[in-house]
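Key result, reporting period 2: structure in, sequence out.
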């Protein structure tokens, strides 16, 4: 039986599982919470409490997906189980990274061959984690994800309750990706494995963040949220770090090598779909 071991079974991995389970796959997902374990079980996923012994799951897994964020010691699973992971014999391994590994390009374009020059600690940790996974000699595929949105991660609630602000930093653009497109890229890679491949996973339309909020307001018939200059905006350190980098990310490789046709090629399509299904 095809068995996916999902290390850090979060938002994107759940979207992939929704595609695999109806096709007869077995999905094992790690979690640190007993309550979340019950929720996973209700979705048809076999929970594996972490930290724990991954040995049996590693032995049974035909496919492995790692999506947990790295910590100070690098990837949290490899920090404790690198040797056991290296002994596994899966057909396919996927690592979910971030386009933050490219650093700041002042709005310029990047692709998978662009040098990795991260400007944030988060980006540097991702580069280190990518290299940790590459060093294991497994049939690894790296997926560098742009900003993720989808059900439960849309802008409509903040626009409706009046807390949304359009933070304006001249020249700032972000690339994005709907979670269902992440899932279809991963599924396509599983069907057409290419060990060693690296893929940018983003839509076709990098755009300023204030445009996205403005369009969300337009869709629900509300005025655009107020504009706030970046230098005056109150933001968490995490939010401010996103604005430290501006780039446009190319996605040609997922189309040319995996045959992917994006479900939501831009944020307008994605937001319309979210609104149609309840926001």
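The corresponding designed sequence is given below.
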């Amino acid at each position: 039986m095809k068995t996916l071991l999902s290390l850090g079974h979060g938002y994107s991995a759940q979207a992939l599982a929704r595609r695999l389970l109806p096709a007869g796959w077995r999905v094992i997902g790690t979690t640190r919470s007993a309550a979340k374990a019950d929720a996973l079980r209700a979705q048809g996923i076999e929970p594996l409490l972490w930290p724990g012994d991954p040995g049996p799951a590693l032995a049974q897994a035909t496919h492995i997906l790692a999506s947990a964020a790295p910590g100070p010691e690098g990837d949290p699973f490899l920090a404790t189980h690198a040797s056991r992971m290296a002994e596994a014999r899966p057909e396919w391994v996927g690592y979910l990274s971030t386009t933050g590994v490219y650093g700041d390009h002042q709005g310029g374009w990047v692709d998978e061959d662009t040098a990795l020059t991260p400007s944030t600690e988060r980006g540097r940790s991702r580069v280190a984690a990518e290299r940790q996974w590459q060093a294991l000699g497994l049939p690894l595929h790296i997926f560098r994800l742009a900003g993720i949105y989808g059900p439960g991660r849309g802008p409509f609630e903040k626009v409706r309750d009046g807390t949304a602000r359009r933070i304006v930093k001249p020249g700032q653009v972000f690339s994005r990706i709907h979670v269902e497109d992440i899932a279809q890229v991963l599924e396509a890679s599983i069907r057409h494995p290419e060990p060693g491949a690296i893929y940018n996973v983003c839509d076709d339309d990098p755009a300023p963040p204030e445009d996205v909020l403005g369009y969300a307001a337009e869709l629900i018939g509300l005025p655009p949220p107020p504009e706030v200059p970046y230098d005056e905006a109150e933001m968490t350190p995490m939010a401010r770090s996103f604005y430290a980098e501006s780039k446009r990310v190319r996605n040609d490789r997922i189309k040319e090598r995996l045959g992917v046709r994006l479900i939501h090629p831009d944020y307008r399509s994605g937001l319309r779909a979210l609104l149609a299904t309840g926001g």
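The chain has a mean pLDDT of 95. The longest strand covers residues 92-98. This case is discussed further under Risks and Mitigation.
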